[in-house]
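[Meeting: bench + compute handoff]

Bench side (C.D.) handed over the final construct sequence. Compute side (W.E.) agreed to return the predicted structure before the next meeting so the bench team could plan truncations. Sequence as handed over:
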Amino acid sequence: MDTDLKVRVKPNVTSWRNITVGNVFTVCRNLTTSGNSLEGTLGIDSHMMKNTEWGAVAYLSRSVYGKNGEVWNNPYYNNLTNNSPITGLCGNESNGKDNGTTDITKTCKYNEAGGENASTTGNVYGVYDMAGGAWEYVAGLLSNNKKNGNNTEKNNYYDFGNSNTNPNRYFDWYAGTSSDRTENYNVNTNKYGDAVYEISSSGDSITASWDDSNSLFPFSSYPVFARGGHANDGSYSGVLEFASNTGGNYVFLSFRPVVLSFQM
């Protein structure tokens, strides 16, 4: 499990995966500390992307201020190296916008003709890799899982969700103690802004979100939100897709940081 890499946001590289959600939270918070990408930078707050922050970008992509349409998936994965995706890609016309592929010639890079379809704004100034590529952990967690945890769970998400040491403003908490996705989904219908309840008709379906993408709400064994889908998920992937996982380290799960400037 990689925990000592530098967080970077770059195209045409393999995304950082195989890291627990607890370590994701730590490396994103430590972006400005010694040896990291933004070492010595003042006036910023860095943290792991929250579920509502993902939702904000997703909504923008469907508005007249964004692409105003469906963002094409990043469909490439190298099945010889742990399903490794490459950042900043989307399918080309011959491959279609959804089909997973191990042939990188069936993709467009972000700065090539057609590559703008992978951007949330439809041009190079948008956000990439929010559809396909690698699944992404976000800081959205069932609230009962911040109170309890065995050793494995503590390594994965309990310490990351400990409000005694980490401010609540860095998380989106969700009600629910059930092992049933639908039950947890139904007790969170008053939450808005995260592109979950508003864009889905079910909490336990592979096609119930907009664009026929996954709609799989967290449950007791899989309490942490994951967004966007994987390259080989095909049409089930998308900016508005949501699912969940254990918080553990997997080769198909990545993340992204958020950096806020407090400079006047």
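W.E. noted at the follow-up: The radius of gyration is 17 Å. C.D. will use this when planning the next construct.
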